[in-house]
Amino acid sequence: MSNNDDRPNNALQQGLKTQVAATVGAVALASPVRATQDKQSVKVEVGEITVDLNINGEKYTLAIEPRVTLLDALRERLQLTGSKKGCDHGQCGACTVIIDGQRVYSCLSLAVMQEGKEITTIEGLTQGDDLHPMQLAFIENDGFQCGYCTPGQICAAAALIDEVKQGCASVVSEDFQNVSQLVNLSELEIRERMSGNLCRCSAYNGIVAAIQQVAGQVPPEPAALVMVQGQEGLA
Ligand code: FES
Ligand code: FES
To answer: Which fold has domain 127-225?
Structure first.
């Protein structure tokens, strides 16, 4: 048995927080290209056009070919690598970002279509050193394993909360006119609303629990906490 098994719960949780900070996209990597006041200074190659993007409250001007997806613009041009490329075909949800409050697969969206819109990536959910409540809930409820799908899952889950608040129905809503309040949102409904985001590690129970927590419900005990408590009981 390793020494780590003797750590108190809060130390274990702190360690988890540190380990997964990058996983949940709390930190933007490298220095992104900032927008210039003078568009003329942006070097435009043959076949490229300029596009102004508003991402996480920052303005960027890019010279890109019109065929470049938003995902590639984020990852390859702006070094905002929190959004992941899983399938690049609109099938997995790893690339999910929030545009004007709605979740969007950035691999299926062209960057040039996003001028004038507010784009939020996983890096933009964090406020300074403070994680977004959904990021914290994913940590506290073991909502991930490898973490590759996690940025997209968290963006989708954060948008889900706002969609329910706005009364948006899902295909399993019992009453399309009066959508359930967050505290009454069923597990079935959460799973349906998150069905566009796949997790190869199958961390679905933890993901649902995290959303239940942010929705004001009482989620089941996190599996890791149960295991730690069980080990303490055996000691
Ligand atoms: S990478 Fe966009 S849906 Fe899979
Ligand atoms: S945590 Fe590994 S793919 Fe979801």
So the answer is: DNA polymerase; domain 1 (1.10.150)
145 C-beta closer than 6 A to ligand 2: yes
What is the dihedral sign for C-alpha 106, 109, 111, 113?
A: negative
Which pLDDT score, from 0 to 100, does residue 223 have? 65
Q: Which residues contact 123 (CB under 8 A, 6 or more apart)?
A: 25, 26, 27, 28, 56, 80, 82
Distance from the alpha carbon of residue 147 to the mean position of ligand 2, in angstroms: 5
Ligand found nearest the CA of 196 = 1
Domain ranges of the chain: 39-125, 127-225
Q: What confidence tier does 97 reach under pLDDT thresholds 50, 70, 90?
A: very high
Q: In the CATH scheme, what architecture does the domain 39-125 have? A: Roll (3.10)
Q: Give the number of the atom of ligand 1 that is nearest the alpha carbon of residue 88.
A: 1
Nearest-CA residue for atom 4 of ligand 2: 199
The Å distance, Cα 176 to ligand 2 centre, comes to 32
Region 113-137: mean pLDDT is 96
Residue 123 clears pLDDT 90, i.e. is over it? yes
